Amino acid sequence: MDNICTRILASAWRGVWAVDRDNRFIFFNKGMEDISGLKADDLMGKDLMLLLPDQKIMNEVHFRELFHKAKETLTQVHYSLLPIITTAGELKEQSGQLLPLLDEKGSYAGMVATVERLSTTKIGTTSGDHESAENKLDVIYRNSPVVAFLWKPLAGWPVVFVSENISRFGYQAEEFTSGKLLYSDIVYPEDLSGLNADVSDFEQERQIYFTKEYRIVTSLGEIRWVTERSMLARDEKGGPSYYQGIIIDITHIKEVESALKESEKKYRMIFENSPLGIFDFDKDGIVTHCNDKIAEILGIPKERIIGFNMNRSLKDEKMKTAFREVLSLRLGHFEGEYTAEGNGKKAFIKVDYSPNVSDDGTLLGGVGIVEDIGERKIAEEKLRKYTAELSKANKELESLDRMKNELLSNVSHELRTPLTSIKGYSDLLMEDTLGEMNYQQLKVVNTIIRNTERLRRLIDSLLYVSMAEAETIKYDFSKTDTNELIDNAVTDMAMPIAEKNIEVLRHVQEDLPQIEGDAEKITDMLTNILDNAIKFTPLGGKISIFAAKEEEKIHISIQDNGIGIPPELLPNLFQKFYQIDPSIRRKYGGTGLGLFICKKIVDAHKGKIWIESEQRKGTTVHILLPILQGDI
Length: 632
Hints:
Blueprint: H1 3-12, E1 15-20, E2 25-28, H2 30-36, H3 40-43, H4 48-55, H5 60-73, E3 77-85, E4 90-102, E5 108-122, H6 127-141, E6 147-151, E7 159-162, H7 173-177, H8 189-204, E8 209-217, E9 223-234, E10 240-249, H9 251-273, E11 277-282, E12 287-290, H10 292-298, H11 302-305, H12 310-313, H13 317-327, E13 332-339, E14 346-357, E15 363-372, H14 374-430, H15 439-469, E16 478-480, H16 482-492, H17 494-499, E17 503-508, E18 515-517, H18 519-536, E19 542-550, E20 553-560, H19 582-588, H20 594-604, E21 608-614, E22 618-626
Parallel strand pairs: 17-19
Antiparallel strand pairs: 1-2, 1-5, 3-4, 4-5, 6-7, 6-10, 8-9, 9-10, 11-12, 11-15, 13-14, 14-15, 16-18, 19-20, 20-22, 21-22
Helix pairs in contact: 14-15, 16-18, 18-20
């Protein structure tokens, strides 16, 4: 330093000293010589930290913490009422600043300390000295969250002074200074013998500063952790004279430490027993930890995995690309066959990389999660083969289904040809065109016609189903009269209606609007519903047909007073080949296709069909068909 700077530093504050980056003194002004009783010439080049015990700084740990805080953060730190004992035996309390020095690159180059305020007290070993120290400590700690004390190194540690904030533990200062309580009375019994032994060893080793963590008991019986930091003053013979220092409640810190240990224990348990391979790596890509599972997956001992440099030694390009995503603070992913470095073992694995980032966004390293997907790959391959086989079988089934539909269609067409002839000749016989027949002959011909018609409906149903599955059904939409459709259906079923002496009642609204539909298929649909109604209605029963306009639709309903249907079976009635009970099929006949075909026809007309029924009372089938737009 030049002379001008030296003069400024020497006069700007009560005291100034400076050390270089190695904590060696490079400046110590006259004010500091007066304060400390030390000479600058004796200090130059000496280590500050080695000097601290000789200077008897009463809160050495506190000073070191302040010094390192300023050094690490490169920001000035203020200190207040820092007590030191000079070579002359005086207690001096300093307030000032610690100012870090920086070089051209902004790095730490040393420290300047200033003393701005100073107060001095003489300390001896008499009771008067104790009282003076007690008063001074009260000034130091009256606004501090820590509890200050001064006690004698006698049995039980009688307390000469304790700050009023001992009340944080439920006690009053007078309880101790009056002798009612000794300090040992509040030490947790299980910790007392250990604390006694440590204090005894400390005094025999002729040290100055005592630090210890132990438990105390509050006035309410609550156990609290404290840390004690105290200085032992010695008499002229070097024996212990008194302790002065502080205790700080660290219960919360201990609880946090305990929680962290428990959390770490759980993490370690998860880490070691995970079914997945887990490893940590630092910012350079060097593996720092791994569990047994990853060693098992890769077939490499843990000691060979730890220390592996992923950034330099990974050879698999896809794996390297996934890992290097972490270096860019992104997630990385690899899935596929991987050849382990070192032993050449091949394994199908999935790896997910995650970066570990500090609060300021700096990369600290990362974590890798490895899953052995070999069994999944085998299962996927088996599934792929099974799917291929299933697809092949499905194609064969589709081919067989087409063959079945074609056969059914051809057979249906072939059957309809002779049926047409049978029905035609039967009609000629019934009309006496080929000569008059007696009653018995007419009855036989009537049976032939009825069964021929029944067979025709069956063939038409099978043909419709085959065409529906082949998606070859064509509809001829045109203007259609609803009354006429109902009449045609009733006429088609006239013979079975007459045979069972069923009364058919019509409740059809006059002047019903026309619908746009396929008249033939709607008639087939109504005929199928009537056929079912006739089939399940007893002799002499009744069937009612209703038709009326409802908003933009025609509502047709066919109601019988037959055997009815259980409510839980209603949702299944429109399924193909569905019948309520085998015994019903044997008694009443049928293929289970009628209602399926009815729904197909209604759906093709953008209508709706549903059934309401009550057992032993009858069934009603409802149909809604859209009205022709011009007739609405």
